[in-house]
Protein: G-protein coupled receptors family 1 profile domain-containing protein
Organism: Pristionchus fissidentatus
Amino acid sequence: MATAAEPLLTVPSTLTDNYSATDEMEGVYSLNPAYQLERALYGIAIILGLIASIYTIRKFRRCCKKNLDVAARLLSYKISLSVADALILFVYAPTQLFWITTFWWYGGDLLCRVYKFTVTFAFHLTGNMQVLIAFDRLITMTRINKLHVKGTTDYNTRLFLSIAWILALLCSFPQLIIFKIVVYNDNPQCSSIWNEYTLMDE
C-alpha cells in the first residue's frame, strides 16, 4: 500500500555553516532562511491541525448512527485515519519543530527508537487508510444498488482494517533497530546507523 515518505532527523550540513567562531564558543547559532521557513510552517500546521482535530472530534460525537453499512465502514476508516493524523500532528510535527530550533536530541536512545517507530507507523497507516477509503468508494459505486440492504457487504471491514494496521506496524518495526543516538561534534542526534557510518568515514 502507498505510504508517505517520512523525513529523517539527521545532522544538516548547514548546522556547521551556521556557526561562527564566536557562536561556537557561546553555544548559539542562527538558522538559515530555509530552516526558519520550515519551522514556521510546522508551527502553522500544528495550530491549524489542532483546530481541525477539535472540529473532527466534535463532528464524530454528533454523528448519528445510520443503518447503511457503507456509512459504518467509512466512519471506521475515518477514525483510523484520524488516529494516524493525530500522531503526525501531536508527535511528529512538534518534535521536528523543536529539533529545528535546537538541532539537539534530548530524548535518549530508547525514546529515539520509539519516536521513529511511532511516526513511521503514522505515515504508513495514513497511506493504508487512504487506499482503503478509495477502495471503499470503488465498491460503493460498483454495488450502489445494494447499499440500502442492511448488513450487505462485499468484504470484511474489520479484516481489512486489521490488515492495514498490521502492515503499518510491520513496516515500522525496523525503525526500532536501525535508529539510535549518533553523536556528531558532541551534538546528539536521533539518526540511522547508516548515517553513523557516514560520519565515521568523514
Notes: The first strand starts at residue 179 and ends at 184.
